[in-house]
Every structure is written in structure tokens, then in C-alpha cells.
Amino acid sequence: xxxxxxxxxxxxxxxxxxxxxxxxxxxxxxxxxxxxxxxxxxxxxxxxxxxxxxxxxxxxxxxxxxxxxxxxxxxxxxxxxxxxxxxxxxxxxxxxxxxxxxxxxxxxxxxxxxxxxxxxxxxxxxxxxxxxxxxxxxxxxxx
Length: 143
Known about the structure:
Elements: E1 21-30, E2 35-36, E3 39-47, E4 52-58, H1 61-64, E5 69-81, E6 84-88, E7 94-100, E8 114-118, E9 126-131
Antiparallel strand pairs: 1-3, 1-5, 2-3, 3-4, 5-6, 5-7, 8-9
């Protein structure tokens, strides 16, 4: 049996190139499923009791995950994908449904709606530079 993983609150995550995020959150909303090349991807708005963030789902996850699902992410990554900061499982991470509907959450701040900048003394680290939106936006209309 694996040692119990320490979960971190969403508010404590920062962009990085490593899969090291272990957290639990509830899915608040999910966009319609677009196709990206040969791969199905979609985004979901997820949150815990400290912050919200956009989460990228791949392939079968797009159909399996629904609003109200409580998910456990191990070895996840929060990074910039085409000028969008998204939390995701990545190649080495794991996403698992652990419950539904009953979890405290907040919708702000939304970490995907922050401006992130390189740390002045540590270019491999990011710091919050500003807030793009004072409220957690759902998804822009795809029309």
C-alpha cells in the first residue's frame, strides 16, 4: 500500500514544468467537447475551498467527468498551454473520481485568470502578477 499523499489546496499551486501537484476538487462546470486534431479535449472549471482553476480533460475523461464530481489528482501539473494556465493530469499524473456533490468550494480567485510572471531572482519560478478578472468566469460562448 502506498503512503498517504499529502493534498495541497488549489490556492498554493503555481505554474511549473513538473508533475508534482496532489489535490482534490469538485467540478463546477464543463465546456462542450471540442476536437483538437485527432484528440478530444475539453476544459472544466474546478474548485476547492481556497480557489478555482480551469482543468484540462483528455480523451475519455471528457465524457466521464461531469459537474458535481469530486476528483483526486495525483502528480498533476499546472502550466501554460497556448496562453492559458491549466491544471491537468499530464502524462504521469492520475485523475480519480472519489465522490460527488458534497464539497465546500469557492469560485474566486480563479488561478487560470491570474497574470503570472517569472520570479525576478528565479526565472524557473512563477509569481502572481495580477488578476485578470475579479469573478470566476465560466466558459466563453463557442458560438
